[in-house]
Design goal:
The protein is mostly beta strands. Among the domains are: 22-202 and 209-215, 3 Solenoid (Pectate Lyase C-like), CATH 2.160.20; 401-475, Immunoglobulin-like, CATH 2.60.40; 479-673, Jelly Rolls, CATH 2.60.120.200. The longest helix is centred in the first third of the chain and has 14 residues, at 2-15. The protein is globular, with a radius of gyration of 28 Å. It comes from Caenispirillum bisanense. This is PKD domain-containing protein. Pfam families: Beta_helix, Laminin_G_3, PKD_4.
Length: 675
């Protein structure tokens, strides 16, 4: 019976396995701006191709368009793609989109409903192809202000293939779609979910490459993100997911915990007829590959790998009816007692050799399973289990070769990288050439490089006679802001924050070099850094600055309204911390800045994982707080002010201000920011 149902699943998938890309037919119109595009759409009543010259085309809306032949909207030169702010298509049919960019940025305080935050939207559309698009958000290093790359809702016969998602909350969402192909897409630097499905039928999800979901936004136990590479669900639908093939996907966790393939039914309506095969999952989540709420599933030849020293990821079968397991490779197999499972040939692997685990250690299966940043790092050892069990066919198809990249970082120099060619079979005289993603090229088996600015860089390693190997290097700094105040307000963090004086700029001798002089002659002056939102919503921080009082009076030394602040009150310090849960904590250190005419080093740390905060002056703890929320409040349309605000201005000097997004020693901050 299971074999018969498997054939039905495969037949359903074959029906939508994806026609070849729509070929150019009919008239071709070349356009160079949004007005020309709109005119071309009006002109091509029976379909044709609209070729877009490079440029910005703003927001495109298509409503009620139906032609007998496909209408294709493509970049004339894919190497120089056209750019849209958004593309929304409703109540239409027979369309194809290819080779352009949708860069959808969200305005603070703007609409937050699903359509408004989606860059590319198909709603009630039949027969559409979406190929070769780049879908992105604001690309500002902050994934909390980005939306959804693509959404397809209430539609039929859709191909979504070869697209690239990055810097988004979610890559793509498919809701109530019949006849769907999602193939060979990539997703990197995603906040929450990669590919999200609800009430889809006759669907093929194949050869997608998802990885590097770097942050955990909010506490998942308190309404924060539950991150998944591939997720199927039924909440808010009247049906379920039916006739689905999930095949050959590579899901590589880099960053925070991300569930691999997760299938469930919240409504009690069972999903039906799933074939899940040849997928590779590398994850620290318990739910490496979880099948729940499914009637009739075949799960075969998948490789699940748990990250070392983390939760033991595994293959889980929950609340389902008739599940067949064949030839999977996983650190753990968990099956709910009430589920009828037909099992054949599951093999167990584990990062720890011995220790009570009856499993083959990773070191006998993979060349580099302890330091994976990309699928190219995960190479099966010849003759090992991974070459004959699990997703061995997928590894063979990837042709990863025998060369990988190992990356070493420095805690005190976060923009510096040591990159090594990992190749056991290469001789000592093997020649390696590196392209480091910022225009720099170097040669050698191992190279050291320091990037000038934080960012994400695609590194390419080349060796004669072998395919190139690529890795995305995330060269980021924990510094959010660094103001040395050496005669200006330039930011030394490398992030390019804009700080400006409010009132007449003034500088005086500092603790090291120069310092900002506030309140000279009774003036109410401050330094303002905008936008302050970049410094809010943190789950950890270290704030350090030097201060010297010149006169009496209270002042708000460093202040981000409704997020955090340090103020001077009668020669002492008062710290205010505003939690994301609405609670406010207050720490008081009386007389902390005495003697008043001397320099003092003030350091505030907040650790959301422990719910604690500590205030130190000159290396001595002067106040503590506990029981705090795990995250500080997020604010919009506020500036970070230094020196004073709301009538409370400093008469004194501030030097060497630094703000980081983690708890760290001041000595390390000094290494990062110089002075």
């Amino acid at each position: 019976m299971a074999g018969r149902r498997l054939l039905l699943v495969l037949a359903a998938a074959a029906a939508v396995a994806g026609p070849a890309a729509a070929q150019e037919a009919g008239p071709r119109v070349e356009v160079s701006d949004a007005a020309g595009l709109r005119a071309a759409l009006d002109r091509l009543e029976d379909g044709g191709t609209i070729a877009l010259a490079p440029g910005d085309y703003g927001d495109l809306r298509i409503d009620g368009r139906s032609t007998t032949a496909p209408t294709r909207i493509v970049s004339a030169d894919p190497a120089r793609p056209a750019v849209f702010s958004s593309v929304h298509v409703k109540d239409s049919r027979n369309l194809a989109f290819a080779d352009f960019t949708v860069r959808h940025t969200l305005e603070p305080g703007g609409p937050s409903h699903s359509d408004a935050i989606t860059g590319f939207l198909l709603r009630n559309v039949q027969y559409a192809e979406v190929r070769g698009l780049t879908l992105t958000g604001s690309v500002d290093g902050d994934l909390t202000n980005d939306g959804i790359g693509a959404a397809v809702r209430d539609s039929a016969t859709i191909v979504f293939a070869g697209n690239r998602c990055h810097d988004l909350m979610r890559c793509a969402v498919f809701h109530t779609v019949q006849g769907l192909v999602v193939r060979e897409n990539t997703a990197r630097f995603i906040r929450s979910d990669g590919l999200n499905f609800a009430a889809v039928s006759d669907a093929l999800i194949e050869n997608n490459d998802l990885g590097a979901f770097p942050i955990q936004h909010g506490d998942p136990r308190k309404g924060g993100d539950h991150k998944d590479f591939i997720q199927f669900w039924t909440n808010g639908t009247t049906g379920s997911n039916r006739n689905v093939v999930i095949r050959g996907n590579t899901l590589i966790e880099v960053g925070t915990r991300t569930q691999g393939i997760f299938i469930r039914s919240e409504t009690g309506v069972l999903n039906e007829n799933f074939l899940i095969e040849d997928n590779i999952v590398y994850s620290s989540s318990y739910h490496g590959l979880t099948v729940g709420g499914v009637r009739n599933a075949v799960v075969r030849n998948n490789t699940v790998i748990g990250k070392p020293d983390r939760t033991v990821a595994g293959l889980n079968v929950l609340d389902s009816v008739t599940v067949q397991l064949e030839g999977n490779l996983t650190p753990r197999l968990t099956v709910k007692d009430s589920v009828r499972v037909l099992e054949d040939g599951t093999r167990l692997i584990h990062w720890r050799a011995g220790g009570g685990y009856e499993a083959v250690p990773y070191g006998e299966v993979f060349a580099n399973a302890f330091a994976v940043h990309d699928i190219s790092d995960l190479r099966p050892l010849p003759g090992g289990l991974a070459t004959e069990t699990g997703a061995h066919r997928r590894f063979e198809a990837l042709d990863l070769g025998d060369v990988g990249i190992r990356e070493e970082t420095s805690a005190t120099a976060p923009l510096r990288r040591t990159l090594r060619a990992d190749c056991e079979s290469c001789g000592e005289d093997a020649a390696f050439r590196w392209s480091l993603g910022d225009g720099t090229e170097k040669v050698g088996r191992a190279v050291d490089h320091t990037y000038d600015r934080p960012g994400r860089y695609v590194v390419t390693l080349m060796r004669e006679g072998a395919p190139p190997v690529r890795r995305t290097v995330e060269a980021m700094t924990p510094l959010l802001l660094a103001l040395p105040f050496d005669g200006d307000t330039a930011d030394a963090s490398g992030l390019g924050n804009t700080a400006r004086w409010q009132g007449e700029p003034a500088y005086a001798d500092g603790r090291d070099g120069q310092a900002a002089r506030f309140g000279a002659g009774g003036a109410e002056t401050a330094v303002v850094v905008e936008p302050g939102a970049a410094f809010s919503g943190l789950d950890a921080l270290t704030l350090s600055f030097d201060v010297k009082l010149e006169g009496s009076g209270d002042a708000r030394l460093v202040w981000l309204h409704q997020a955090f602040g340090v103020e001077l009150v009668r020669g002492g310090l008062v710290v205010h911390l505003f939690g994301a849960d609405g609670h406010r904590a207050r720490m008081v250190a009386q007389g902390a800045l005495r003697p008043e005419a001397e320099w003092h080093r003030v350091v505030l740390t907040f650790d959301g994982s422990r719910g604690t905060a500590v205030l130190s002056v000159d290396g001595q703890e002067v106040a503590q707080a506990a029981g705090l929320d795990s995250r500080l409040a997020a604010v919009e349309n506020r500036a970070l002010t230094i020196g004073g605000i709301h009538g409370r201005f400093l008469d004194g000097r501030i030097d060497s201000l630094r703000l980081a997004d983690r708890v760290m020693p001041v000595a390390e901050l000094e290494e990062l920011a110089g002075k």
